Amino acid sequence: MAYDAIETPFGKTDKILGGCATYIGLAASQFHTDCALVSVIGEDFDKNHKQLLLDRGIDLTGVETIKGGKTFFWSGKYHNDLNTRTTLDTQLNVLTQFRPVVPQHFKDASFVLLGNLDPSLQLEVLNQMESKDRLVILDTMNFWIADYREKLDEVIARVDVLSINDEEARMLTEEHSLVAAAKKLHQMGPKYVIIKKGEHGALLFYHEHVFCAPALPLEEVFDPTGAGDSFIGGFAGYLAQRKSTAVADMKSAIIFGAALASFTVQEFGTTALENLSTPALNRRLNAFKSLTEFEIELQ
Amino acid sequence: MAYDAIETPFGKTDKILGGCATYIGLAASQFHTDCALVSVIGEDFDKNHKQLLLDRGIDLTGVETIKGGKTFFWSGKYHNDLNTRTTLDTQLNVLTQFRPVVPQHFKDASFVLLGNLDPSLQLEVLNQMESKDRLVILDTMNFWIADYREKLDEVIARVDVLSINDEEARMLTEEHSLVAAAKKLHQMGPKYVIIKKGEHGALLFYHEHVFCAPALPLEEVFDPTGAGDSFIGGFAGYLAQRKSTAVADMKSAIIFGAALASFTVQEFGTTALENLSTPALNRRLNAFKSLTEFEIELQ
User: Fold this and answer.
1) I need a labelling partner for A192 at 20 to 30 A (CA). Which of A58, A164, B13, B187 fits?
2) Nearest to B194 by CA among B174, B215, B211, B171
3) What is the nearest CA distance from A44 to chain B, expressed in angstroms?
4) Which domains does chain B carry?
5) pLDDT mean across residues, chain A
6) Is A212 within 8 Å of chain B by CB?
7) Residues of chain B numbered 215-234 and touching chain A (CB < 8 Å)
8) ipTM score here?
């Protein structure tokens, strides 16, 4: 959980609510399922922000408040194409003291999502889980691939679903072809590999098959922050609601995740997710359906 | 129609059969429809290559042979990622004397595909057409956008379907968002705008809607030459077979085009298209279907 200050070609924010856990929680809480966050905040964390999450039924007993500490802060500026960004400031603050503790009543969770963070912390969470039949989903990014590779490999070996973007998949495997990269990633552990391609959608590789999910073509991307978190939070939330790990449900879960991400990027920070209504979500899901439907009569 | 010498990370060819008309003809002739090419060749053009096209029922009365002339020649080298290439040699040869003549018995064609060439020549073809209800499809590329813009705009204003890649759409419209770019392209004339995104598939923009076609994720792209031509040739061939310009058929046509392109890139030059069997094409169409199918239960 974090505070972000963001600049895009369309505007600029002061400190706003951010962090992968926040986006994941807001996305997952769109679904009918129990959801808890494990994270750390400082005493500066706004009680209205805490209430916002509690109001959506998100369990925060696993969120530690460090006395006298300050919440993690990130500030960045997106360039004109919105595909690249420059980090202006990173203040780790309470993150340096973070020792994740999974609440006892969530240790038997059937769905565990390890958000984008230090692989050592992801391992600490995983080691506390007691459920036997669980689906573990891992999200990560280039920073951990470059400098924490050994620990990251250890986490990857223990998860069922790996979510990663195309450039990171290439970086991890040294393969240019995403099909070849997915093969190598499977060999590292995960049975399911999701490769995110931003505006080009996402691919799910499973049992030597591929599923290709579109992204909704948007006229304007306002702020890409949290898109990947919203995507994977929606993915996990949908599967938890369905209580399913079937491939057919994973495909639907990817569409739900992509739909949630498409809302996130249309406003600054968590604004769109906070205000999202079920009818609006359903309209967008229908748009995804009509976006991809075609008939084929074989020759 | 051309001869190409191609180098990719996987190998190298001497002069082989190439040219947009050749790929278009081979792709379109997969369908049950009459098809004629309008092009120019030199006396060096191999009679076996001519026979290859004739054997597939392609009408070549519109292909002029220039006495003593040499066929257009292009030589290029693809870089490691296969997304960029360097032109090593271009010999225009007979292309400098090309005055396209549409055969009388094809002037009433219902489907006219203007392959990637000088916009002035594309206009000359269009001016010879006598059919009233016809669908005109235009393919073009960066070279014509940069240096022949005025003539190109004139062609674009007169066509129904524009096929263009993502970078070219951005170049033509000075819009980064493909949705915004498509809007501007519609305003230039075409009711249907296809934006090709290589390994990320293609988008069809029509009547304020979008259709998103996937590309088949391939482990190895062997030689990208002719992929765009195969795509649009397949698109036109399928529509001609269906005798339809309905949007539903255009969507199917894009999938057929993408399937044909996916074969083309798996071998050097026209090899894969030459040897393609109907069962193999049908298997690949089924792969496209299962690649994109998902179910959504609304929330």
Assistant:
1) A58
2) B211
3) 36
4) 2-289 (3.40.1190.20)
5) 96
6) yes
7) 217-221
8) 0.89
